[in-house]
Automatic annotation (TrEMBL):
Organism classification: Bacteria, Bacillati, Actinomycetota, Actinomycetes, Micromonosporales
Domain of life: Bacteria
Keyword Glycoprotein among record annotations: no
Transmembrane as UniProt keyword: yes
Gene3D superfamilies noted in UniProt: 3.30.70.270
Record-annotated membrane-spanning stretches: 12-30, 50-68, 75-94, 114-133, 154-170, 176-196
Domain GGDEF, first and last residues per copy: 235-361
InterPro entries: DGC-Regulatory_Protein, GGDEF_dom, Nucleotide_cyclase, Rev_trsase/Diguanyl_cyclase
A UniProt-annotated Pfam family: GGDEF
Keyword entries, A-Z: Membrane, Transmembrane, Transmembrane helix
Organism: Actinoplanes couchii
NCBIfam families documented for this protein: GGDEF
Protein name: GGDEF domain-containing protein
Length: 361
């Protein structure tokens, strides 16, 4: 399962949409006719007709979770597809048999029912064979391309609405009530899923994907509020622009993976040196910014700078290679006439480059 709690929520909501869609079909074809004619049938006859399709739907739900989250390796995809096909064929066979029995047909399986069951068993037997065959195929060593979020679970909504339209105006309560409830539940699940996805998209749009810090988008959204609040409350906003020293050398000497690890470690270092109300931003490359809002004393900004310098005394481990972090830090405080975060960034950036030049002399 994905590490992200949001991703797990999306997977379970997608699988629930599939399960409810399948349950609506089973309600229309199997369960509602059973309940409508329960007075004329014994529970000995009704129980298999109810239990078999429900168990198949439960299996389909479990397989849907696996299919939606995706296989870790391409080797598993073809066998997984065969397994899905087997479950669907067996589900169709059980649904067909229950439908025939509930409409006065023979208790013995018909040829089409037997064919569906046999095909399902063949696919179940074929899945491990495909697994062995796929595992022997050579695979190119390219990274797996990121895939778009799955869209097929939302197709489960279509049969629900079609069946709902078909039962509108029917006096018998069982099909209509169940389908209306199922449609409402599906709409709720889809809405919840979209809300989860929207929040995740918003978070990703404002987060640097490597370090997890805020990016420029979030900075330009948050900084104007901090500046406006400082004017109302007669407080200060400080901006620190931080440029790492020697980053290109580490990239060239140890590779880009080590450079990424250094950026991640340095980002964590910065987070340890600030308060929860402060904003740490990756501006790009090896350049960072820290926004300190609501300061009552200009010395607080220098105290943060000192904490960062003290923290840089501890080396960062890059998968066995120990590197001493170093950075130049420029500071700017709000002044009368500052209208945007760009004014502060420009002054802090200028101060940072002055410090870097003096250090290289």
């Amino acid at each position: 399962m994905p590490a992200s709690r949001t991703e797990r929520a999306k997977i379970w909501l997608d699988a629930a949409v599939v399960m409810v869609g399948a349950a609506m079909v089973l309600w229309f074809l199997v369960l509602s006719p059973i309940l409508a004619e329960a007075a004329t049938s014994s529970w000995r006859e009704l129980t298999p007709s109810i239990v078999h399709p429900l168990l198949d739907a439960l299996m389909l739900f479990g397989i849907s979770v696996v299919l939606i989250q995706g296989a870790e390796s391409a080797v598993a995809r073809v066998p997984l597809t065969a397994l899905i096909a087997a479950i669907v064929l067996i589900l169709m066979g059980d649904t067909r048999r229950a439908y025939v029995i509930n409409h006065g047909g023979s208790l013995w399986p018909s040829p089409d029912q037997a064919t569906l069951w046999a095909a399902g068993l063949v696919m179940l037997a074929l899945a491990p064979c495909l697994q062995v065959w796929q595992s022997r195929r050579p695979r190119p060593g390219f990274p797996r391309r990121a895939t778009a979020p799955p869209r097929w679970p939302y197709l489960a909504v279509i049969p629900g609405y079609v069946l709902l339209m078909a039962t509108v105006g029917v006096d018998h309560p069982y099909p209509a009530s169940g389908l209306i409830a199922g449609t409402f539940l599906i709409a709720t699940l889809v809405f919840a899923r979209q809300m989860v996805a929207a929040r995740e998209n918003q978070r990703m749009a404002m987060t640097d994907q490597l370090t997890g810090l805020a990016n420029r988008v979030r900075m330009y959204e948050s900084a104007p509020r901090a500046l406006a609040r400082s004017q109302r409350n007669d407080t200060l906003v400080a901006v620190l622009v931080i440029d790492m020293n020697g980053f290109k050398k580490i990239n060239d000497e140890f590779g880009h993976h080590a450079g990424d690890l250094l950026l991640i470690g340095f980002a964590r270092l910065l987070l340890r040196c600030v308060l929860g109300s402060d904003l740490v931003v990756r501006l790009g490359g090896d350049e960072f910014a820290v926004i300190l809002p609501d300061l009552t004393d200009p010395g607080h900004a220098q105290a943060v700078v000192q904490r960062i310098r003290s923290a840089m005394a501890v080396p960062i481990d890059l998968d066995g290679t120990v590197v001493q972090p170093s950075a130049s830090i420029g500071v700017a405080l709000t002044e009368p006439g500052d209208e945007s975060i760009d004014d502060l960034l420009h002054r802090a950036d200028t101060a940072m480059y002055d410090i870097k030049k003096r250090a290289t002399r």
